[in-house]
Fold each of these.
Amino acid sequence: MVENETEKLKEKDVKPSTEQVYDTIIIGTGSAGMPAAIYAARFNMKTLIVGDEPGGLLTESSNVENYPGFSSISGLDLMNKFKEHVDSLEVPFLYERVQQITRDKDLFLVKTPSGDYKGKTIILTTGSKHRKLGIPGEKEFTNKGVSYCATCDAAFYKNLVVAISGGGDSAAQAANLVAEFASKVYVIVRKDYMRAEPINQTKLENNPKIEVIYNTNIKEIKGEQFVTELVLDTPHNGSTSLKTDGLFVEVGANPQSELAVQLGVAVDEKKEIIIDEESKTNVEGVYAAGDVANRKFKQALTGAAEGAIAAFSAYAYLQKRDHNKEASFSYHD
């Protein structure tokens, strides 16, 4: 995220306190974490939200066209609106990376560089991080032609040749964006089909600048100071060498569930947190939502809904545990 935009999101922050016992501490400040904070605050819960910076990976999306109320909006602008809503409810933000979560009787201790924060419940919305190719040259040329953020770097490739690695919707979106600047865009897909949202794939297929190379993997990234060539495992136009000025890696993401595992929360074979329909995990008082959870359909909209459900579940749990009440009312806006 651009630095001054990050600071803009932080302007109205309420400061957290290590002395306060929070009803819930939300770990993660993206499209699931901030809705969880909004709903927790509306339930009158003392709430703290913790994360590196507001917005998460969605801030890297250039064009969000599937969030109700906005026919088209950048991910950064959408997250700005989420943040403004959270600020209006005076929920404190803590911009730090959580180092550890432990349990001490009825409380959870969230350890950060500035201290330990106490919460009665935890909502994990830690999202995901970019998956890497793990091939020779990737590490050496990161930020030297290899990028994981088309929104951040597409404009640097005006009139140049660029490749996109990936076969999903993020790859299609990246290709459409990069094609606005580059002279040529190759999309390298390891299978014989793409799994993009139809509207994005149609845009890709109708763009004369974009060429899709199917059934192909990148074996190595080569260059001098910057990327100049990709080595393919299948010849393209008679050669396994593809000349390019840059590579955007869009091969999915891995869930950031390490904190959950430390806490004893169950995860599946993909390391995604296992939740039920109420966003509950196997650990009492711990809930999860968004990309870190084991839901098949991962979108900003579904993450926001899961965050809201997690907040309600945490509220209902505390009502029953601390006040012997059933939170059985039907909540409507």
Note: The chain has two domains: 3-129+253-323, 132-249.
Amino acid sequence: MQMKNKNYKIYINKINENWIVDRLKKEFVTGNKHLVTNNLRKADLIWIIAPWNWRTIKKKYLISKKVICTIHHIDELKFIDEKEEFLERENYIDFYHVPSLVTKHQLEKITQKKVIYIPFWIDSKKWFIKENKLELREKYNIESDSFVIGSFQRDSEGSNLSVPKLSKGPDRLIEMINYFNKNKQNLRVLLTGKRRNYVIAELEKLGIKYSYYEMATPLQMNDFYNLLDLYIVSSRFEGGPFAIYESAITKTPIISTNVGIASEILAKESIYEFNSYLNARPNVEEAFKNVQKFTRESLLPKYVEEFINL
């Protein structure tokens, strides 16, 4: 790849939230150490990968450097309240990056600036298929005959952990789980992640069995996908979600609302409108085939090529 300037440097803003974006930043840096700098003065391009932390960058650098900002998703339920912040930040943005076509279409309605679409990636070497579902269930004390539904993302809003984060659709998730509980024998829900208070409280009200691992390791997460009968994405608005990538690469049955990357990886029959979720059907082979286009090896070079030529 021919660079305009062999000393070209990218500064990526700090996150430090122990969240998926930290992982993406780390993986990008690991693969492009020659390209990334922690010194803003030496940077040719500032990549605001975490737009909520944009104020941590001094304005003199935002003014003097080229700036690209990633917009992961736009929560249309909240945008009226967040519009002022968006417009203030836009004063310093030269280009936008989005990881899904859904977000691209949303963003192009509210900005005249160039929007670059490159999906985020999955490291296919860290996720793999395991055939021994019964052994995995025994390992985690889950009955072998259970119908196991997975949900691995937070559901509570802000500091009030009893309030559902509506963009993630936990209220919808509970309704769907309750339906399956009435129509499947021995249902169990497997939860991971922080801020699962709302869903846990609702499951307990309904008397539905669940297992909860707040901080699962990467190896445990791989196990969890492989022991599921179904993963449900019930979000109203979403950037990834990475559960779609992870389900697809591990051949985990999954159904999802049409958010984020869903339509680019999942088969049409696996995507549902909320009032028609009963018609949704997982298609693991189609998802597995499509997710191969979203691997780290295939997508990281596209970021480098696009960004150094801005």
Note: The chain has a mean pLDDT of 92.
Amino acid sequence: MRLVPTDIPLSLAILGLRLEGDDDRSTPDKLRAALHLARTLGVAGVHLNGAMADLRARELDRSARRELAALLRRYDLALAGIDLLIPPAHFVDSAHLDRALTAVAESIGLVADLRTLLKETPGAQVARDYQPVICITLPHDATQSVRAELAAYASKAGVRIADLSHHRQPIASTLASASPAANQGGPLGYALDPAAALMAGDDPAAVVAKNAASLFNIRLTDASSDGRCALGRGRLDIAEFQIALSAWRYTAFATLDLRAVSDQEHAAPAALKAWTTSG
């Protein structure tokens, strides 16, 4: 029997999600379709796509934020976080750095506002004390001052930032060289994408062990010899991965991430079945 960690809430990433009919839908309708899929799947929350047209943090005024919070409540979904995949080079390129940091700060502000709005009239899921995470891709050579600034933004709002890049060096070692605010136990951590780890020749279960103290988000992804695929159809040893998560007491979100997966509406329930059933 598989050791399925029952205290890990599940979420759906909107990033890379393509549903039938999306080409003819407006952005609000695409979002509703994604939330409907999440509700149908029975997951607890969603990761918003921070680059989605008309839903970028800088484009949403107070009224639009209230509407977004109301939509999440209507589907009884928690805000698991925001995926904000700014090109990593922008965090080290002086021509783009200010804009990149501003985008992160704006997304953190959006998360903070939505958390407040959701608590005003919470539903069954949103009433739970989930701590949302902003997922970004940081380059290894991001400076100490950049990491410190990101940590300051996150600390002020009570939000965590997770690096979705797959670095060969354990993230705890990377953070140890940064400012004290970004050290272990702080608001900067790691998001583990098993597909990226597998494609880099690494064992996702071993990566969990190396980064357990700063692991803020895991993605439910898989990879075959041809690249990314739906969870359960690739090389990920799900049982071993779950055992590692249980051993290191991981309790943050496990996020179904369907980037580059074909036939997503059928792949999604199959992936969750692979995660939750014995094999």
Note: Residues 151 and 181 are 6 Å apart (CA to CA).
